[in-house]
Amino acid sequence: MQVAKECGFKYLILTAKHHDGFCLWQTRYTEHCVRNSAWRMGKGDVVREFARACQQAGLKMGIYLSPWDRHERTYGDSPAYNRYFINQLTELLTDYGEVAEVWFDGACGEGPNGRRQEYDWQGYYAVIRKLQPNALIAICGPDIRWVGNEDGYAAETEWSVQDPVPAFHGNVTGPVWWPAECDVSIRPGWFYHEHEDSKVKSLEHLLDIYCKSVGRNSVLLLNVPPDRRGLLPDVDVQRLREWRKALDRIFAKDLALRKPAQASSVQRGCVAARAVDGKRGTYWMPRKLPAYLEIDLRQPTTFNLVMLQEYIAEGQHVEEYSVEALAPAGWQELKRGTTIGRKKLDRVAPVTTTRVRVNILRARALPLIRAVSLYHAPEVRVS
Question: What is this structure's pTM?
Answer without folding.
Answer: 0.94
